[in-house]
């Protein structure tokens, strides 16, 4: 058909948001969050206060039962500029919300019920799953309210909570529905990490290995050196890991040229094709961070078979992840389909479908740099699902 007339529309909107690190954000004297919600310098008409609604992950509520009260008191003592529209609402932690559309829509209902407007702020305190699901709900109300995230897990502070993605799981797949929307700000309260179970505390470590292996060889070495300390739940090592990992993720989003993932390459999804599949195969018994650790072990071995990594480096990765406490063999790796194909390899099909067009897997080539492949030798990959004999013995200790 002939185009009768064309108008080329072009504009750009610079996106910027602070990612702040603090401790005990709701202690009386801490102004970090208040400066994000309603900067004191900003001129406001007399009596105008910023309306804020707060959602809190049930994991945080259980680990810090005094928190909801602290939040309410903290807002009350800043009532000249902040208006907490209702008591903080506790949301089910983990994938529960992300898996349930009705749960997400109930947040939309609540925001409308309290007449939040486009100047209001929704503050969400939680792990990656609650942040994803609540952030998605926030993006729908009035076509997107201001979202302040307060990530409460290691993985959310160094990855899930600091970027531009929000969403939920539908049709049995991970993150099948969602939006790209930048937050208004992110406040990482490092004291929240004290409440985590060992499993959830460990979860952020694999995302740090992921980004280090494809972007920063020096950080990879540092992580390997810190592995024994991380295995012992060393707070200082974790803080260093979280901050450096967050820097690398944010730099990638800002400088990769594809913040909204329109292209086919996804360097930050290194190790994730199998991770997402393992999560859903296990009905989310295996958490994201644990699944990514297994995914890194698989893809590192594959990179070594391709000659992109020395075999010793793949072994170093596996050993370091095990030293941090990850169990790299789970029964889901042994599941087979009727034709004998390992079920986890379906993750390749799903990743291809998600990307659209050509399959693109990012792998370290060498450590600290990224290479891409578009075809996978499935029988070789099937061999990489299992650990080399030496490491298997170690993981059974
Ligand atoms: N949007 C993104 O860019 C992005 C990136 C990576 C991962 N993700 C998503 O993030 C999710 C995983 O996030 P996660 O690892 O934070 O796990 P999670 O959100 O499932 O939280 C793990 C558990 O920790 C609890 N919890 C949270 N904070 C706590 C605290 N301070 N003390 C005690 N318990 C606490 C939660 O209730 C939950 O039971 C997955 O759904 C994944 O797909 C999103
Ligand atoms: Zn991830």
Quickly list its features:
two-stranded antiparallel ribbon, Dehydroquinate synthase-like, alpha domain, binds zinc ion, 397 residues, alpha/beta, Rossmann fold, 7-stranded parallel beta sheet, 11 strands, 45% helix, binds nicotinamide-adenine-dinucleotide, 16 helices
Write a structural description.
The strands form three sheets. Strands 1, 2, 3, 4, 5, 6 and 9 form a seven-stranded parallel β-sheet that branches. Helix 6 crosses helix 7. This protein has two domains: 19-33 and 48-195, Rossmann fold; 203-396, Dehydroquinate synthase-like - alpha domain (Dehydroquinate synthase-like, alpha domain), CATH 1.20.1090.10. It has helices spanning 32-37, 58-63, 67-76, 95-98, 101-113, 128-140, 154-160, 198-215, 217-231, 235-255, 272-281, 288-305, 311-323, 346-355, 378-384, 389-396; strands at 19-22, 50-57, 82-84, 89-91, 121-126, 146-151, 165-168, 177-180, 185-189, 361-364, 370-373. The protein is α/β, with parallel strands linked by helices. 45% of the residues lie in helices and 13% in strands. It contains 16 helices and eleven strands. It starts with 18 loop residues before the first strand and ends with a helix. Bound molecules: nicotinamide-adenine-dinucleotide (NAD) and zinc ion. Zinc ion binds next to helix 12. Residues 159, 207, 272, 288, 292 line the site of zinc ion (ZN).
Helices and strands, with pairings:
Elements lengths: L18 E4 L9 H6 L12 E8 H6 L3 H10 L5 E3 L4 E3 L3 H4 L2 H13 L7 E6 L1 H13 L5 E6 L2 H7 L4 E4 L8 E4 L4 E5 L8 H18 L1 H15 L3 H21 L16 H10 L6 H18 L5 H13 L22 H10 L5 E4 L5 E4 L4 H7 L4 H8 L1
Parallel strand pairs: 1-9, 2-3, 2-4, 2-5, 5-6, 6-9
Antiparallel strand pairs: 7-8, 10-11
The structure holds nicotinamide-adenine-dinucleotide and zinc ion.
The site of nicotinamide-adenine-dinucleotide (NAD) has 33 residues, from helix 2, helix 4, helix 6, helix 7 and helix 8.
């Amino acid at each position: 058909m002939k185009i009768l007339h064309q108008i080329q529309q072009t504009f750009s909107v610079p996106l910027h948001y602070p990612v702040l690190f603090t401790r005990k954000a709701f202690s009386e004297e801490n102004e970090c969050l208040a400066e994000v919600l309603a900067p004191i310098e900003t001129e406001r008409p007399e009596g105008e206060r910023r309306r804020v609604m707060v959602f809190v992950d049930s994991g945080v509520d259980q680990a810090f039962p005094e928190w909801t009260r602290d939040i309410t008191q903290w807002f009350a003592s800043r009532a000249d500029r902040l208006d907490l529209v209702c008591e903080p609402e506790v949301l089910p932690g983990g994938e529960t919300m992300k898996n349930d559309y009705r749960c997400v829509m109930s947040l939309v209902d609540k925001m409308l019920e309290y007449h939040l407007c486009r100047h209001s702020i929704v503050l969400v305190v939680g792990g990656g799953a609650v942040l994803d699901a609540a952030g998605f709900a926030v993006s729908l109300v009035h076509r997107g309210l201001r979202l302040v995230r307060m990530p409460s897990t290691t993985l959310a502070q160094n990855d899930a909570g600091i970027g531009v993605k929000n969403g939920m799981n539908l049709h049995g797949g991970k993150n099948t529905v969602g939006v790209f929307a930048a937050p208004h700000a992110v406040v990482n309260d490092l004291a929240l990490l004290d409440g985590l179970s060992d499993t959830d505390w460990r979860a952020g470590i694999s995302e740090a290995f992921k980004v280090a292996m494809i972007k920063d060889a020096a950080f990879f070495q540092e992580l390997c050196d810190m592995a024994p300390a991380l295995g012992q739940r060393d707070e200082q090592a974790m803080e260093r890991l979280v901050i450096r990992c967050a820097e690398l993720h944010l730099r990638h989003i800002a400088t990769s040229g594809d913040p909204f993932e329109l292209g086919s390459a996804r360097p930050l999804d290194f190790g994730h094709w199998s991770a997402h599949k393992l999560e859903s195969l296990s009905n989310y018994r295996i958490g994201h961070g644990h699944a990514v650790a297994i995914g890194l072990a698989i893809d590192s071995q594959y990179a070594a078979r391709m000659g992109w990594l020395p075999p010793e480096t793949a072994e170093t990765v596996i050993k370091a992840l095990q030293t941090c406490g990850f169990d790299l063999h789970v029964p889901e790796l042994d599941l087979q389909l009727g034709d004998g194909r390992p079920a986890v390899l379906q993750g390749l099909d799903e990743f291809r479908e998600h990307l659209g067009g050509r399959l693109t897997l990012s792998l370290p080539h060498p450590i600290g740099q990224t290479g891409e492949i578009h075809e996978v030798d499935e029988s070789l990959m099937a061999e990489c699902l299992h650990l080399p004999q030496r490491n298997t013995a170690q993981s059974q200790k």
